Amino acid sequence: MKKEMIKTLYFDDDGKIPNNAFYPLTLYHAALENRDAMALFNKNKWTNAWQNGVFPYHHYHSNTHEVLGIVKGDASITFGGEKGETIRVEEGDVVVIPAGVGHKREQASSDFLVVGAYPDGRDHDLRTGEPNERPTVLKNIQNVPVPEFDPIFGVDGPLKKSWTKQ
Known about the structure:
The chain is of the alpha+beta class and 166 residues long. The protein has helices at 37-43, 134-143, 158-162, and strands spanning 6-9, 25-28, 46-52, 66-72, 74-79, 85-90, 94-97, 103-108, 113-119.
């Protein structure tokens, strides 16, 4: 995969969705070309996988990072909460979402299908930005470790290089 096929984005805390000050959202364009997303994620220790879509409301996970592999169709997903950025994803794309970064499906093709997974099969919470969540989730996000493996490229992947706490 060519370097220009990888995009990273940071999102500021918008007061509701905390996002992540330490790690960027990482988008790999066309990373799954003729590869089985679930098998690839499993090989790289991103497990506890599921297949479905993306919720049509802003949400995030405070206790783990998440990878989404687009296996069919296309969609527009807003990352970073209401003040975030809407990105078009399509079959073959992979998005690594740091703990705390909001995501919401805005639109999707009728055949849209995602495989999602978590580093080391971590369990995930589901947060929506309610005020009573805030103290707990901020602490959770700070304590989520850097994954041992990039979900696409393994131990030497670009995620490990870009996800170094400053």
